[in-house]
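Ticket #4471: structure output looks truncated?

Reporter: J.K.
Steps to reproduce: submitted the chain below (361 residues) through the standard prediction queue, then opened the result file.
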Amino acid sequence: MYVAVKGGERAIENAHAWLAEARRGDTRVPELDVAQIREQMALAVNRVMAEGSLYDPDLAALAIKQARGDLIEAVFLIRAYRTTLPRFGASKPVETADMRCDRRISATFKDAPGGQVLGATFDYTHRLLDFKLAADGEVPPAAMAPAQAGSVPHITEFLNRDGLIQTEAPSCETPPDLTREPLEFPANRALRLQALARGDEGFILGLAYSTQRGYARNHAFVGELRIGRVPVEMEIPELGFSIEIGEIELTECETVNQFAGSKTAPAQFTRGYGLVFGQTERKAIAMALVDRALRWRELGEDNLGAAAQDEEFVLSHCDNIQATGFLEHIKLPHYVDFQSELELVRRLRAEAEAVAKEAAE
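Returned output as attached by the reporter:
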């Protein structure tokens, strides 16, 4: 046993060295540095920050480099590092109405109050490979409009003036913290939104798509999608007031969904909501769709049996780190387990053969 353990350690050390060599690649090619990843692979960095529950572009870029571009592995590294950090306090809720918007669009109002800002988006590109990038050609600077500053009211609030959309009642309760407390069911909406915000983008996207294809009552419009930076404030007890400690980039999406009404509520629109670190609009839209699908009980709707309506199914399986850990553990040594299974199969076969032989005689 001792010799086997030593051999295993040596093999693991060699695997680590081989991994470092594979990560570097051809040494004739210049090595990527963290700043290049942060600035030129920003969408990957944003995803790692969102699913890693830690807003730090430099650390996210470092994790991507260390993980050789495997974003789930990078999320794992960020989550592990996050557990080592001390917690000094909690910030005040950010005011997204004060966002300095780089992108703000609505699919429901053409002439949105405050105007629509397309921003940097793939929406209107032709999805053709740009071989100038392969030749390292310089991209001409764009004529950029200044970010919208000051109060930028949410477009859905204009529906509120006519009472056509469900009013979201403010809550004075401190929301539970999923990073410090285990997930429990039933989960309130605040906890569900936390889980969705750091859930795997592909999984959330698949669920959202299923709701659009009829596997839940979820005919939605994007009321507003906005991307920009918001200040983060923290209250300092010794000072007696709050101070701004920085700013973060966020993507926020509000969907407008149909609602036929109930015995106590008239026909009106309802909302789905998504809020994610960085420019992560696909995730924010998908999150809003799944959020709305999960609200069937509080809105008095029927459960159609769709996967996206099953709170326990969605929240228990959307976390890619938990999923990865459980999936990848089966490639680790299971010699004893397999030998017991093998012995069971052999015994069952022997018993079956004995019965067949006895019947033949």
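Triage note (M.O.): checked the attachment and the full token line is present. The CA atoms of residues 199 and 319 lie 5 Å apart.
Status: closed, working as intended.
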